[in-house]
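Form 7-S
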Amino acid sequence: MKKEFIDYVFRFYGPGGVYGKHFNHQLAREQVEVGVAILIHHCQENGKEFMGDSYDREYILSIMQQWYIYNDSLREINTFLSKNYCNCDDD
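Output:
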């Protein structure tokens, strides 16, 4: 699933992707892999389930923008995820 999800995200935000403009059509697959790894690690550390859906794709976008465009630290990204990430069915 992880490889398929990386492919899915890269098709959206990579060169020629529908939203490739977010990264001037210069995003590398390896950058997507880092974003996915950050989110999966956050989920594992916080007891959340990584779903690999469009919500997670949007969180990957936020992570990559913070990391590659705004040069935020990993600590800042984790703080963002702690405050905002909820791709779950909390009843």
